[in-house]
Amino acid sequence: KQEVTQIPAALSVPEGENLVLNCSFTDSAIYNLQWFRQDPGKGLTSLLLIQSSQREQTSGRLNASLDKSSGRSTLYIAASQPGDSATYLCAVDSNYQLIWGAGTKLIIKP
Amino acid sequence: ETGVTQTPRHLVMGMTNKKSLKCEQHLGHNAMYWYKQSAKKPLELMFVYSLEERVENNSVPSRFSPECPNSSHLFLHLHTLQPEDSALYLCASSHLPGQATDTQYFGPGTRLTVL
Asked: In chain B, which stretches have pLDDT less than 50?
């Protein structure tokens, strides 16, 4: 049974720092891995999708990597801004179903 | 705006009430989903509809009853709920599940409180 873990559960950093969020999964048989962002009281917004055959994807200041063999993904945020404050969720597409981590709550201090 | 709307945004109901949550997508997608999000727990997939047919029902209690009258609309009918059912209920849609590039678009959710 696929399980997804995100560490840390919460993170607070000063504005301008580069940071890394971690996601691990137990079964490497995945179709893709996705990172989402959730703002308080709102739904989820897709940030990046990495197909199982890919190693990384980039969008602006965000870079996500995937290492299927070790069951790990990282989301790198460069030059963090207060607007990046949100909960970041990782999900793996396993057997046509998204299996979710519990998220990392990120606070960027001005 | 993601193209997925949900109503109501907030709902308070007693255990004996019957209510319905509504979701509408304006993206031309073929699949729609209901998720439950409880505090500090991963999202739980409840139901999946693909081309208006239910393809997934993840051991959800019968007090939750989904309905998908067409590819743009999804309902979740609620009756005799329990306080532990209080959560954020999220609706999502996607083009076609099973494709390696398929991603889901979420509505803002309905915050449900059961008294």
From this structure: none
pLDDT of residue A74: 98
CA atoms of A72 and A68, how far apart (whole Å): 6
Q: Parallel, antiparallel, or unpaired for β B18-25 and B4-7?
A: antiparallel
CA nearest to A100 within chain B: B42
SS3 B58: coil
Cα–Cα distance, A78 to A18 (Å, whole number): 4
Q: Which residues in chain A have Cβ-Cβ distances shorter than 8 Å to B40? A: 9, 102
**Candidate from A44, A51, A102 with C-beta closest to B106:** A44
* B100: nearest CB among A32, A100, A103: A32
Contacts of range B46-49, beta carbons closer than 8 Å, 24 or more positions apart: B46/B76, B47/B76, B48/A97, B48/B97, B49/B74
**Residue A7: which pLDDT band, with cuts at 50, 70 and 90?**
very high
3-state secondary structure of A83: helix
Closest CA to B113 of B20, B34, B10: B10
Query: In the structure, what pLDDT confidence band is assigned to residue A101 with cuts at 50, 70 and 90?
Result: very high
Rounded-to-integer distance, Cα B48 and Cα B51, Å: 10
For A57-95, what is each residue's pLDDT tens digit?
Answer: 999 999 999 999 999 999 999 999 999 999 999 999 987
